[in-house]
Amino acid sequence: MPRFVIDENMPRSTGKILAETGYPVMDVRDYALREATDDEIYRFAQEQKAVILTADIGFGNILRFPMGSHWGILIAHFPGEISNRDRSSATERSSQQDRTDYTYMRKRNRYAVC
Fold first, then answer.
1. Residue 98, SS3?
2. Where are the domains of the chain?
């Protein structure tokens, strides 16, 4: 089961929902990484062998964070007008959906959701 590092730009409820679903979750705010650089968060996630869950599109830079060099990066992009409550609700609904809606790619203990 993948582990997740939740970036500070995601609502805390995101981690709570994932944890309630059984996923191991680490919120950067609980590990003295508030306002950390992307590189610091990346290193922490690699040490934890965890997927980064973030809204920071900078993590999408494949030159900086090439595929296969990490445990996974999931960039959650929401419309600018969506509230934290709606964002959390969407996360909860997606965690409860039938997993056949998604393709999970696993290679050498690394995950990608397509």
1. coil
2. 4-113
